[in-house]
Amino acid sequence: xxxxxxxxxxxxxxxxxDAALKVVEAEAELGRKLVxxxxxxxxxxxxxxxxxxxxxGSVGAPVxxxxxxxxxxxxxxxxxxxxxxxxxxxxxxxxxxxxxxEIEEVYVRGKNTAPKLGEDVWDVQLVQFSTTGGRVGSIxxxxxxxxxxxxGVEVVCERGIVGTALPAGAIVRQDHAASKRITEGWYDRFRxxxxxxxxxxxxxxxxxxxxxxxxxxxxxxxxVADACIASLRSGCGNLGARFVPE
Length: 246
Prior knowledge:
This protein has helices spanning 17-30, 45-55, 80-99, 186-207, 215-234; strands at 7-9, 35-37, 62-70, 103-111, 124-131, 136-142, 150-157, 160-163, 171-174, 177-180, 238-239. By secondary structure, it is an alpha+beta fold. A hairpin with a 2-residue loop joins strand 7 and strand 8 (160-163).
């Protein structure tokens, strides 16, 4: 920012909301938006199609957001906070993106199902939240699901439901069963999203017109992440309403 250079920053924008706020303030002082945060789900064809369906208004306003994020496996070296900051952060951004309101309150519970990570690591976490406009939602993050990599959303609206489906692929009928392959990891699932994200960022640099998630989105998601960590540690609900004016 000091050199007025455009930045595509991988998520999270920083390691805490306080650190991310400094980025937001530096950009505001500059008077130009130069930071984009790598929330690539905003470029995933399935997520984009679901968002367009919600935004069309045909199913009414969002009422409940449900998100799930499951990794097949992870090696030791992570902690419960890592699950929130590095994995769940995507789902937090998805909730804000779909509902278009800030998350105001969170309540987090977890369970250890993978002792190899350490018995104090909650590899499965469930978040319940409410927003500034009275919407509610849940996020399930499971970083050692064993069965594969799966990410999806369902948005319950006033007059219908919008959700993502399993990625396209062949249905195999064999041995008295029908099956469909589930992706092994994040790159297989979101390859198209990453390519589209980078292409559109390059175009935005060329035109000088920023697109995608910005520094505020990076900051706002970390405010929620910090509140989730506090709830996880305390066993209580936690308010995430530490926002500054946008």
